[in-house]
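Researcher: Please translate sequence to structure tokens.
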Amino acid sequence: MRASMFTGALLTIAVVLVIVVSSALGLQIEQYALAGVLGGAVIGLVADRSPWARLLAFVVGFVAAWVGFVLRAALLPDTDGGRAVAAVITLVICLVAVAIGRGTRLPMWATFVGVRLFSAGYEAGFGAAEPEVATTSMDAATSLLMAVAVGYVVAVLSTGARSASPSRPLATDTTEAVTEKQVTL
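Model: Translation complete:
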């Protein structure tokens, strides 16, 4: 419990610092601070695979969503059908990356976090200025990634970069690791 509270406090401080520093330097990251820092924290905290595999999977999803927006602006009609095709392409990119990355064991959920973060962070900007997708998407992506990086680093460092292996789950706080004999599926 103490470790979770400590990590939560550090992440709270990180969000505030991102907002304050961004405002002071005119970086315009404030609107992405909470979602970005906490999205990075999720990637850093979930003890599934190595921190690098989770981060790589996140980046794949993030880029896949970005590709979906570029395709919507460049090739697809601004209709429900166009949005559906872009969504399918985005998810197929994630599925293919996870299938190809089986050797590195990319977690599918982390690709979805990347898709979700970029999609939620950029949808309003895209709708407001669809023809300017090259500029506005780059602004949103760099702002989001800066906030995500802060959350990821804080989360990984606060937990000591622990990760679970398939044969040995992590013991966290006061709970004990569950042995294979205790787990029935």
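Researcher: Any highlights?
Model: Residues 177 and 183 are 11 Å apart (CA to CA).
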